[in-house]
């Protein structure tokens, strides 16, 4: 289901405006309906709000935006696609009225999509096709885009594993809901990564406690591995020192809670 169908307003769809307006509309929703301290989102209030209505109308403008021509750097592409994913996720969650768990609703991540510059892209295709550089979905033997798929030209030139700390999934184990400014993308994603690691990664009972995304997407962290990633990005230097001193520390993975974080 393409959620941004309908007439779009006539305006200049330049790179700066579109990239930053996604962030602006998403931030307006975050400010009003997301409790970052409790990690709760009021989906019911959001779907009946002017902020949501304005975001829905704005999303229609994406149909006339050329992401290949307009997004000229890796930082801008990363910020744009992460913001687009998070906006589409909120749009789809509010539109569908799903309760309980998006994952258990059946096809949620592959059925809800946006038309972006003539390319129809689902949540799965933005995450696994574009951001993860046309990788296989967990548990799947096929890639997001076939070899002949014209959407392959949208794939990022490199995979930044920090993306996993910034994609919102509307549940209790989800990364916090954030926006990413294209002008300061490196700083934004750096802060998001530190915040996620601080919340979900710790040493407990002599083991390194890790969220399940590190198990599902282990290959995304390259040859240096997950521990190297944590050592480089975790803000708790005491934890980092513990890892450096105990290279044989065992790992334990925390179950992923898919229950919607509805207020």
Describe this structure in words.
The protein is mainly alpha-helical and 263 residues long. The protein has 2 domains: 15-186, no CATH class; 195-254, no CATH class. It contains 11 helices and 7 strands. The strands form 3 sheets. A 3-stranded mixed beta sheet has the order 5-6-7. The chain has a two-stranded antiparallel ribbon with strand order 1-2. A hairpin with a 2-residue loop joins strand 5 (202-204) and strand 6 (207-211). Helix 1 runs antiparallel to helix 3, helix 1 (15-33) packs across helix 5 (74-96) and helix 10 packs antiparallel against helix 11 (237-245). The protein is globular, with a radius of gyration of 18 Å. It starts with 14 loop residues before the first helix and ends in a 9-residue tail after the last strand. The mean pLDDT is 92.
Form type: globular
Strand order of the largest sheet: 5-6-7
Give the low-pLDDT segments.
none
Q: What is the number of independent domains?
A: 2
Average pLDDT rating: 92
Layout of helices and strands:
Blueprint: H1 15-33, E1 34-35, E2 40-41, H2 43-47, H3 50-59, H4 67-70, H5 74-96, H6 108-111, E3 113-116, E4 119-122, H7 123-131, H8 185-200, E5 202-204, E6 207-211, H9 213-216, H10 225-233, H11 237-245, E7 251-254
Parallel strand pairs: 6-7
Antiparallel strand pairs: 1-2, 3-4, 5-6
Helix pairs in contact: 1-3, 1-5, 5-7, 10-11
Which features characterize this protein?
7 strands, three-stranded mixed β-sheet, two-stranded antiparallel ribbon, 263 residues, mainly alpha
């Amino acid at each position: 289901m393409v959620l941004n169908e309908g007439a779009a307003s006539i305006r200049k769809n330049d790179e700066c405006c579109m990239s930053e307006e996604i962030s602006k509309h998403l931030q307006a929703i975050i400010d009003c309906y997301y409790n970052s301290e409790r990690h709760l989102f009021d989906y019911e209030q959001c779907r009946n709000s002017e902020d949501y209505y304005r975001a829905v109308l704005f999303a229609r403008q994406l149909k006339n935006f050329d992401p290949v021509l307009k997004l000229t750097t890796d930082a801008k592409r990363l910020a744009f696609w992460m913001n687009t994913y998070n906006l589409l996720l909120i749009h789809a969650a509010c539109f569908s009225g799903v309760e309980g768990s998006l994952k258990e609703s059946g096809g949620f991540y592959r059925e809800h999509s946006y038309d972006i510059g003539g390319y129809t892209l689902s949540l799965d295709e933005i995450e696994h096709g574009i951001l993860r550089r046309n990788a296989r979905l967990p548990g799947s033997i096929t890639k997001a885009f076939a070899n002949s798929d014209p959407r392959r030209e949208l794939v990022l030139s490199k995979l930044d594993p920090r993306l996993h700390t910034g994609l919102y999934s509307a549940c209790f184990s989800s990364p916090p809901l954030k926006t990413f400014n294209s002008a300061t993308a490196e700083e934004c994603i750096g802060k998001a990564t530190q915040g996620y690691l601080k919340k979900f990664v710790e040493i407990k009972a002599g083991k390194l406690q890790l969220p399940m995304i590190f198990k599902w997407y282990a290959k995304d962290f390259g040859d240096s591995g997950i521990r190297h990633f944590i050592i480089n990005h975790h803000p708790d230097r005491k934890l980092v020192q513990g890892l450096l001193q105990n290279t044989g520390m065992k790992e334990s993975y925390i179950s992923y809670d898919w229950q919607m974080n509805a207020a």
